Amino acid sequence: MKNIQINHAQKGFTLIELMIVVAIIGILAAIAIPQYQDYIARTQMNRAYGELSALKTSAEESLMRGQGASLTDADSVGFTSSTLLTNNEPSVSFDGATGAGTITGVMGNEASTAVVGATIEIARTTGGTWTCRVAPGTGGWDDSFVPTGCALSN
Question: What is the pTM of this model?
Answer without folding.
Answer: 0.83
